[in-house]
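Pasting as-is:
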Amino acid sequence: MKSATAIIIGAGHSGLAMSWHLAARSIDHVVLERGDVANSWRTERWDSLRLLTPNWQSRLPGHAYAGEDRDGFMTMPEVVHFLQHYAELSRAPVMSGARVTRVRRDEEGYELSTSQGAWRCRKLVIASGACNLASVPSLSTGLPATIASLTPLQYRRPDLLPDGGVMIVGASASGIQLAREIQAAGRRVVLSVGEHVRMPRTYRGRDIQWWMDVIGAMDLGYDAAENIERARRLPSPQLVGTPERATIDLNSLRRAGVELVGRLAGLHDGKAQFSGSLANVCALADLKMNRLLAAIDAWVTGNGLEEQFAAPHRDGPTVVGAETKLSLDLIAAGIGTVIWATGYRPDYSWLDVPVLDRHGRIRHDGGVVAAPGMYVMGLPFMRRRKSSFIDGAADDAADLAAHLHRSLDRAAA
């Protein structure tokens, strides 16, 4: 059986950032990766997807984007190249093709079974990702067999879809991107809208992510959040990375011909029922967006920088229309595909340690798991609001590597 002081599961941006910080502290470790570096970016994304964050925000420990298109948005092949290059530069000890099939406690730490043999370690860092599995609601069982059922992990491009219209369930980042692309391909698109986070792509001449960064919103700590459990469950913001830096919201989708309906509340015999609260849900999202923009305005004014930025402005409220459908016969409407853009969840089926809550999520305190010597990386709002972004991995990894190092020192004392 092979051994290392620490083992990192996953060679995505979070695992590589942790590897960099462990190496900086001379802690011997190995990174076990089920495929190749950036595996999920290679295999589980649709063809046209780009990062939601601008290129300048692609920053990892000791490395950052250095291309000419700082305000652009990387394609998936570009993300894979960026992470592969980083792994090579940092000389991360990645073992590719080492799928972890079981983790259990032993007297000294953890024992791991993998497709390339057994490993033992004192410290374990789980950086396997928060989006391994699509969260599909149980009511999906009411979908007729004649209608294709897909998730964003399975979707690739419009021409590969079965004939007919498409109903997309969920209007966060994935849902609005797919609605825009499929509608532009000439398909009928019905978008079922639940709770969402509306954001403009740019504001007062800057990317909204720049504003979130500069006013400190992305660095908000988990211990300072008003309701951290709710914050961790919030849907991803309605942002799309496009060369033209376009704002894609429900208004622009409706103008393009996408039909908006409320949250999917029932599905029986091919007939979908929708909540009647669409207008209220949209009004709440508008209110929260305008609060954020007001906070940005206050920061500009408070720092005496009005002349350095464009004047403040507000986009109009979301218009849903008075004739929003409350039900739809999917077969009669010619719907050939339903795409469940209803979120993701991690896969810990291999984790044989009692650290999961009733929802199958790891119990942790800012990434320190409720088991001796175990850590987790890359989860939403794990230590900071930016934890799940590429840009958030460096600070989180620095904190957890320091905690891990102190733990080793205490054990050696």
